[in-house]
Amino acid sequence: MSEFIKVEIDKSKCLGIEACGGCLKVCPVNIFDEKNDEPMIVQKEEDECTLCDLCIEACGPNAVTIHKLYEDY
Ligand code: SF4
Ligand code: SF4
C-alpha cells in the first residue's frame, strides 16, 4: 500500500480504456494499468507519483483524484 499518495478512480465517471485511456497514456511513472477495459491503480507504484497532474488534465469526466496522504500527518 502507498504511504504518501493514493490515486483514486471514480469508476462511475470513467469512460473506459478503449473509449479514453488518457490516464494510462500520460502517466510518466506508470501508476495506471488496464484490466477488463478499466484503468486500475498499480498500488505498489502509487508513491512514485510526481504530482504532475497530467492524468487529471487528461481525464475529461474528472474521474481521477490524487490524495496527498502526507498532508494528514
Ligand atoms: S499526477 Fe502524474 S505521476 Fe501522478 S498518477 Fe497522475 S500522471 Fe501519474
Ligand atoms: S482518463 Fe479518466 S475517463 Fe479516461 S480512462 Fe482514465 S480515468 Fe477513465
Keywords:
4 strands, two-stranded antiparallel sheet, Alpha-Beta Plaits, about 70 residues, binds iron/sulfur cluster, alpha+beta, globular
Radius of gyration equals 12 Å
Determine the mean pLDDT.
96
* Unreliable stretches covering 5 or more consecutive residues: none
CATH architecture assignment = 2-Layer Sandwich
CATH-derived topology: Alpha-Beta Plaits
- The CATH top-level class label: Alpha Beta
Percent strand: 15-25%
* Total of DSSP H or I helical runs spanning 4+ residues: 2
SSE succession: EHEEHE
Count of domain modules? 1
Task: Report a brief summary of the structure.
The protein is α+β, with helices and mostly antiparallel strands and 73 residues long. It is 14% helix and 25% strand. The structure holds iron/sulfur cluster (2 copies).
Describe this structure as you would to a colleague.
- A hairpin with a 2-residue loop joins β2 and β3.
- This protein has 73 residues and is α+β, with helices and mostly antiparallel strands.
- It has a two-stranded antiparallel sheet.
- The two termini are 16 Å apart.
- The model has no long low-confidence stretch (mean pLDDT 96).
- It has a single domain, classed as Alpha-Beta Plaits.
- It contains two helices and four strands.
- The site of one iron/sulfur cluster has 14 residues, from α1.
